Amino acid sequence: MLQVAYIRENKDDVIKRLSIRNIDASQMIEDVITLDEDRRKLQTQLDNTLAESNALSKEIGNLFKTGRAEEANTLKAKTTQLKEDSKQLNESLNAKAAELDELLYKIPNVPHESVPFGTTESDNEEIHREGDVPKLHANALPHWELAKKYDIIDFELGNKITGAGFPVYKGKGARLQRALIAYFLDKNIEAGYTEYQLPHLVNEASGFGTGQLPDKEGQMYHIGADNLYLIPTAEVPGTNLFRGDLLSESELPISITGYTPCFRREAGSYGAHVRGLNRLHQFDKVEIIRVEHPENSYNAFEGMIDHVKGILEELKLPYRILKLCGGDVTFASALTYDFEVYSTAQERWLEISSVSNFETFQANRLKLRFKNSDGKTQLCHTLNGSSLALPRVLAGILENYQTEDGIQIPEVLIPYTGFDKI
Questions:
Q1: What is the spatial distance between Cα 79 and Cα 51, in angstroms, rounded to a whole number?
Q2: Concatenated DSSP letters for 47-99?
Q3: What percentage of the chain has pLDDT greater than the value 70?
């Protein structure tokens, strides 16, 4: 969440930058400042009351020591009242702080100054395009038809077991899926990321820490009996590894990677654009996460972009990069670049990765800090990116690598699959 001090010192700029998200935040920002002023006044009153109570206690002790018990007992009645006042002030202070936090949790991150204004994904800015779109044979099929033809993914069987959006991978389809996971992890490890195996369920505090709660509560699967959530991305458990940590400057940067299944309700998703692997309730993803010094986070961001580009170029898939506009950037992100692979059979772009810099927004929620060389405590910057989300990468491979007599396997994956064709 945004820091109150930052809001107070940059009120007009915060309101202006949040307007890029198509939000009029002026009233919320005024309310934050008012609540913070009320909280500060209550804190001052409480501090003064406690100081007076402590001073009286010392005075009472001295009076008893000098045999002036009657005067001491008179003052004791006053300290009793001061203690009651302190209790009430503390309760009021906690309530005001909770009200302030509740409001801060609802305010999204301020967009980076480079984020373009826009209302929908159609306003996103294309900044890079790479690779040639292959020319397919006359009878080319979309991936869901290829999956059925070669018996590698069974959507109907998944529907039988669970419901729509839970496919079953079979034979060479399962092996190709596993090959992609291993390849992505190996590439990330080679780039300096440490591999973690992460929990697939998280508690409420973790959801708040990375900004999924309260913003995306309706999109997450909730286990009511235990008040746990199935993860929508490895970003949530991966970033929460460092919740509450006070790091030394020498520990930065921290770079981790992990493979997890991801679970998303995708409520309201329907139509031709969600067929097959295009949109699922359960899917596999390999994630990269960085905890960075604020001065280096945008260099790290560019490095993450280059890393994902290198993977897609090895897979020889045509792709493009979009800078998300204010209306499409996520709640917690300051800047997000999306990668999209071109699906030749569907004749459309499929999003396969998002790389985001959250600056201090998540770190403030997580209380993730570091001590700099001067001994001062600062909030870290957090970043994450898909490297990569599997369903649409797999869809792109099946469609773009299809031939009249089968599906070629990208050369870089053959050591992982053990076969070169389906």
A1: 11
A2: HHHHHHHHHHHHHHHHHHHTT-HHHHHHHHHHHHHHHHHHHHHHHHHHHHHHH
A3: 98
Q: Where are the domains of the chain?
A: 4-106, 121-417
**pTM across the whole model:** 0.92
358 secondary structure, DSSP code: E
| pLDDT for res 66 | 84
List helix spans (H) across 191-335. Answer: 204-210, 235-240, 297-315
Contact 137, 404 (CB under 8 A): yes
- For the chain, the average pLDDT equals 94
pLDDT mean over 254-266: 96
φ, ψ dihedrals at 232, nearest 5°? -85, -15
Mean pLDDT of 33-43: 97
Indicate the Cα dihedral angle 224, 228, 229, 234, nearest 10°.
-170
Domains 4-106 and 121-417 share a fold: no
Is CATH 2.40.50.100 what the domain over 4-106 is classified as, yes or no? no
Look at the domain 121-417 and name its fold.
Answer: BirA Bifunctional Protein; domain 2 (3.30.930)
Burial 45-67 (b: 16+ CB within 10 A, else e): ebeebbeebeebeeebeebeeee
Q: Which helix (H) or strand (E) holds 203?
A: strand 201-203
Distance CA 57, CA 65 (A): 12
**What is the model's pLDDT at position 369?**
98
Q: What kind and span of H or E run contains 407?
A: strand 406-407
